[in-house]
Design the sequence.
């Protein structure tokens, strides 16, 4: 490197260091938080979920993080130089969930930052979905302070600190000053202020209040409706899902890019190519990090990109090569929670039988487990009752015969020389429904996937119920939107459990998504036709309902809950077994507090499933 190059390199290094020092200095002068006392949402998410529902919050809603919103606030000159105080973390809610700041560092005491999370959860539980944020936040505050006196001390401490911080807010016009006075008065005396004076700029948000969503949810991709200007979308990272502000753009035009051509061919129709060069459809591994730093995300409507065309071939198994369709499909309704009614014949469920299944013996690694399981079942002596000293029976009672032979007064009557074993029939039918969606492809460790554990669980379940002699059937399901709900027949009620059934179980493959409501409805129909007095619907899944259309979030949750209620109305007992660590946030709403079991160690599912079955059917 030349001397001039060394000088430039050293100069750039010095400029970079000076720039960092200036940035830290100027932003530090305008910072109002206490990073050393920060508390994150991820630390409290489980406790907040329980607390929110205990305070009367909607059990169908999920709790998550939100990105900061950009507001047009009046800023001091130092904040304008530093470029700060433009974006604020504001708690808000919509019909799907409640969204909290990812991190709270407003107060110097960590305990007070933690209390703010629980206060916001309590506030969200009191407020309706659509509300006047200024007036009804005050009403909710007053209700909480009157109903739960334990909040009063912490509320007073938080308000005192926030009002001190708001003393530095810049108010140039008289209306802005009046508005700020109204906000401070509303914090000190909830429900006293009914109107908030309007002003040219936005007011600084109140950290103790819940704000409404910017707009309604995003429309479905195939719905023909006007594009909204502002929306909220989810941006997922490896650790947390954050709701970000977004806007739609109409990119459906075919020639909206830069068309490069030779001027000589300007009037030549044969050399003109209708081509869009404005898109780069290559995969960017840094896209998630880039999106995290963006204030706004712009979403397009086009579905003809390379990634969308190749997704089925790359990520999902081919639907026309691995299964035989049985019949032309079954039309099922779906519950629309917003309309409070069913959409008739909305789902098409297609029963399938594996084309690759061959009769297969039980895998070697499961045989020791099965031997131990059968010995345990024999020790229960389920379904057997031994009656001694009978006139006829299955075996000779030697004690009774010797007593008769050595008796000095032998009589022809009363020769009860037999034992009889009565086989009591367990009047029970069970249908096990297994989730075969693409999420089961996830690895548990270096050698095992979730789908491998589900296969072993089904095999052990089959061996256990076959030993007990109970009537049972097994099905698997996955989905691609509402018109292709794949319903895999592994064993129906009329089949015997044999090597062919074992082969079907071992041939299952993960793919597609989890439209659980339709699968439960079809399983309810099949199980309700059985003549048994007791009917158990056992569902094995690794996650919550989802699909690539609107069957995501609350819509899928509500439809699944309705399907479970339908099953209970038919006299069935639905029970869900899951390995989803977040299941406690939504399964109580779907199945009830005693209608599910969470297996925290996925590898133990094969051993636990038969034990749960015995506990349910004793």
Sequence:
């Amino acid at each position: 490197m030349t001397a001039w190059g060394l000088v430039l390199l050293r100069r750039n290094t010095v400029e970079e260091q000076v720039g960092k020092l200036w940035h830290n200095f100027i932003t530090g002068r305008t910072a109002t938080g206490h990073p050393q006392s920060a508390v994150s949402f991820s630390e409290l998410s489980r406790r907040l979920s329980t607390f929110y529902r205990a305070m009367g919050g909607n059990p169908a809603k999920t709790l998550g993080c939100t990105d900061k919103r950009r507001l047009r606030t009046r800023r001091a000159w130092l904040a304008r130089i530093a470029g700060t105080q433009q974006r604020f973390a504001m708690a808000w809610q919509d019909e799907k969930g409640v969204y909290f700041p990812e991190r709270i560092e407003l107060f110097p005491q960590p305990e007070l930052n933690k209390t703010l999370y629980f206060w916001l959860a309590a506030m969200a539980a009191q407020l309706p979905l659509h509300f006047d944020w200024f007036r009804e936040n005050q009403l909710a505050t007053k209700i909480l302070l009157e109903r739960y006196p334990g909040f009063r001390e912490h509320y007073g401490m938080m308000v005192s600190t926030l009002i001190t911080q708001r003393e530095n807010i810049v108010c140039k016009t008289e209306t802005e000053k009046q508005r700020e006075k109204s906000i401070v008065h509303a914090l000190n005396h909830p429900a006293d202020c009914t109107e908030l004076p309007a002003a040219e700029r936005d007011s600084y948000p109140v950290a103790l209040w819940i704000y409404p969503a910017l707009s309604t949810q995003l429309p479905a991709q195939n719905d023909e409706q006007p594009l909204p200007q502002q929306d909220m979308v989810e941006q997922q990272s490896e650790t947390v899902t954050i709701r970000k502000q977004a806007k739609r753009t109409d990119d459906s035009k075919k020639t909206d890019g830069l068309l490069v051509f030779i001027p000589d061919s300007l009037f030549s129709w044969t050399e003109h190519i209708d081509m869009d060069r404005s898109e780069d459809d290559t995969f960017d591994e840094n896209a998630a990090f880039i999106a995290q730093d963006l204030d706004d995300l712009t979403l397009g409507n086009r579905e003809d990109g390379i990634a969308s065309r190749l997704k089925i071939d790359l990520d999902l198994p081919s639907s026309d090569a691995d299964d035989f369709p049985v019949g032309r499909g079954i039309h099922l309704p779906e519950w629309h929670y917003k309309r409070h009614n069913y959409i008739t014949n909305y789902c098409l469920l297609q029963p399938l039988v594996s084309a690759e299944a061959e009769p297969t013996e039980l895998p070697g690694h499961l045989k020791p487990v099965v031997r131990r399981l059968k010995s345990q079942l024999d020790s229960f002596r389920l379904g057997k009752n031994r009656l001694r000293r009978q006139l006829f029976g299955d075996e000779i009672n030697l004690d009774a015969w010797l007593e008769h032979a050595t008796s000095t007064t032998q009589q022809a009557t009363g020769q009860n020389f037999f034992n009889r074993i009565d086989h009591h029939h367990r009047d029970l039918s069970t249908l096990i429904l297994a989730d075969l969606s693409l999420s089961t492809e996830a690895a548990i460790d270096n050698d095992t996937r979730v789908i491998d554990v589900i296969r072993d669980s089904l095999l052990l379940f089959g061996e256990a119920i076959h030993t007990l002699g109970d009537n049972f059937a097994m099905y698997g399901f996955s989905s691609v939107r509402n018109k292709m709900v794949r319903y895999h027949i592994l064993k129906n009620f009329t089949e015997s459990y044999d090597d062919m059934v074992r082969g079907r179980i071992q041939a299952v493959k993960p793919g597609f998504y989890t439209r659980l409501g339709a699968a439960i409805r079809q399983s309810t129909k099949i199980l309700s036709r059985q003549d048994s007095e007791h009917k158990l619907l056992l569902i094995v899944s690794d996650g919550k309902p989802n699909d690539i259309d609107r069957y995501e979030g609350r819509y899928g949750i509500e439809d699944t809950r309705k399907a479970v209620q339908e099953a209970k109305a038919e006299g069935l007992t639905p029970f869900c077994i899951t390995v989803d660590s977040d299941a406690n946030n939504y399964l109580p709403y779907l199945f009830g507090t005693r209608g599910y079991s969470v297996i925290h160690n996925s590898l133990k599912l094969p051993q636990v499933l038969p034990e749960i079955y015995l506990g349910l059917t004793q």
About this structure: The chain has a mean pLDDT of 80. The longest helix spans residues 3-30. DSSP finds 17 helices and 23 strands in the chain.
